[in-house]
Amino acid sequence: MSDTNHAPDRRNFVTKAAAVVVGGLISVVAPVAGLFTVFDPLRRKSDTRGLVRVASLASLPESGEPRKFPVLDTLIDAWNKTENVPVGSVYLQKTGDNTVRVLNSVCPHLGCSVGYNASSHGYFCPCHRSSFALDGAIADPKSPSPRGMDELEAIVKDGEVWVKFQNFRKGSPDKIPV
Q: Which residues span the membrane (predicted)?
């Protein structure tokens, strides 16, 4: 009779030991996974925007006339990742066989969209009549713009134009990134 009393105790011991092990694992793994999720945005770089592919070099005219292109980037905001979001636009101008000039299409005066005027070979802001030369410099000394158009960094790699897109503070004579 003593043998039958020990058998259920052994079975209960194995069940209880398994429950303690599984419970222990759950109580450790779940909080650790939760901490990784909560602190995930802090592990990422704060500046996720680097070089963005804008266009192919072949899409630019050989004449050097600028063309306007949208800038589409991947935005990461905390836990959300959204691809191909329009973040602005730029003018690309072929300046050599493998070189380009990139100008932000926003007027440095108050942020209006600058247009290209092919007949005058320059840029024009319709909001306050700022005018800019083909290289982005202020064309009219009476222009209300405090500085020329903002030139951006770019590289040409494998026939593709990659731009480091960024905006700058409006109304300031200094080029201050925002």
A: 17-39
**For the chain, how big is the Rg over CA atoms in Å?**
30
Which residues make Cβ contacts (< 8 Å) with residue 9, sequence separation at least 6?
A: none
Q: Are residues 4 and 63 in the same domain?
A: no
The single-letter code of the amino acid at 155 is I
Say if strands 80-94 and 67-77 run parallel, antiparallel, or are unpaired. Answer: antiparallel
Structure tokens that stand for 31 in this block: 């909080």
Give the domain range for residue 59: 51-164
Q: How many domains does the chain have?
A: 2
Q: What is the C-alpha to C-alpha distance for residues 178 and 169, in angstroms, rounded to an integer?
A: 6
**Overall pTM > 0.90:** no
DSSP element (H, E) containing 18: helix 2-43
**What are the counts of helices (DSSP H) followed by strands (DSSP E) for the chain?**
1, 9
- Write the pLDDT tens digit of every residue in 95-105: 988 899 999 99
